[in-house]
Amino acid sequence: MRLRIGVLGLGAVTQSVHLPLLLRRWAEFQVVAVADLSAQRATQIAGRYGIEGVFSSREELIAAHTSGRCRMDAVLVATSGTHGADVLALAEAGIAVFCEKPLALAEAEIARIEAAGARVQLGYMKEYDPATAQLARVLDGCVVRAVTVEVLHPSAARQLSFANLLPAPADLDADRLAAAARATEDALDVALGTGTERGWRDLYAHVVIGSIVHDIALLRSLGHPIEQVHTAHRWGAQGTDPGSVEVTGTLAGGARLHLGWHYLPDYPDYTETVTFHHEAGSASLTFGVPYLLNAPTVLTVLAAADDGQTRTEHRWAQQEAFENELLAFHQFVTDGLPPHAQAAEGRADLVVAQQILARLAGGAVGGEAAGR
Hints:
Number of domains: 2
Strand content: 25-35%
Structural class: alpha/beta
């Protein structure tokens, strides 16, 4: 079955990753509509790819579906901020959703999504990376002692210089932007409390939920979820630059976690390394720029050999994690095959993210996070 799919939110990840892959997978997907707060950008992208449905809001997109003017089996959500309201509205219209992270910023949002019976898959592409699947096989039966994560995060401009993105639109209405931002601010009020300082709100939304959540999800998917966050520290922040974040914790099974996330605006390239140490060796995943398609993740396995050691590298240049997760979404919608992450997994990851923020901010956080 070929899914009729709409795309809501036409920013960097949609332009560089999702639309090219949806169009490449023409046998599984037909892109029938795009929607963005910028009508100019939606029109440009629709014209570039020959997409008939062009809309400037979630409400317009859903109205076209319910009226029969533009029927959709599914919508890919890649708007900015929280996605809770978008996913809930689409679910109530009977539309399956592929949702880029974050699913939501507050647990209360996810509770409403679950109550609505939403068919939603979270966009955690690392869970669909062939290197991740091979790592799971390598670790099978091993007693993991420790896990280290290091993220070196340059500016978005350095990561996306290759992508030839459309210029920033000039037709964005201030009132509509403010209305969209209010949904995110309301969710942050619930998650962190109304009195939490702007800096902590931004760090939670843009770094913890915006980036570190991928590592939270990856550890969970590999069977080593974070059970308890012990400490979290931040340093090096300058102006709007978030600086560095360090997290320690305990994983299921007793292994200890050390995670370092560093915003380094002029660093040569995005690099993320996740290493598992067990009683007989180590295994590491090294991820590159997430927006660059078919750039293979490297799995390095270190093992004992006689009186020495072996070091083996594995690469899968012909498989793209983003593409694999879209194919899993197709199976989810057409055959009911559960994906790696749905609302329940999103809720578990969000709880850990709130634990991290609570340790970072100490007593300066309220809302849901205060009880973590």
